[in-house]
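Problem: given the chain below (227 residues), write out its structure.
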Amino acid sequence: MAANTATPAEPRRRPKQSRSRALVKAIREAGCAILEEEGAAALTTNRIAERAGVGIASVYRYYPNKQAILADVFDEKVKLIDAYYRQLIKERKLGTFPLRDEIRHLIETPVQLSLQLIQLHRDFYRHHYSDFEISYRTAPDGAQNWVEWGENWWQSVLERRRDELRVSEPKLGARIMLMAVRGAIDAAIDREPALLEEREFVEGLVDLACRYLLHDGSPSITGRGDN
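Solution.
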């Protein structure tokens, strides 16, 4: 996992009045717009104030520095991504696609999630990755975090298609694949972020998963303790 050298600064104060909330929202949206349209190098407190249409004193009233604004921008972005994937999950019915397509979807989803965040501000995300990692936030069912939910999602897909599997234990297969995919994404973020943008990265993970999980003429992989 990418190193987290220090927790990013938080806003000086949280707005309570509607006017103050609107001002903070404008600052946050300005920061996000600058990152997406002009790039990280253009992000300064003066540029944020200009883009938001507020005085620099108003920016510093709520944020001690640019890092605090970035943290707020990332936190808001994670909320939007979280909402997007919750909706995607509602719309996509498990078991209605060929298994290889299901596996591809299960791999593409976390890759795209991480890519959206790292493209916002590569250095900030790499240094504060764990603060904005969505995996440990509450999952769609409200009782689990995204890691646990993702493991159950993998298991649910595999359980429904046991006759196509090379592995005999869908639960263990789901756990291994989730760990493998998450580990590959974390390593890419830490050492070679550009990999997340390469189609071959996803294709390689899909190929790895299919070779491990699906019948291809190779002997079946049995459960724990079997020879």
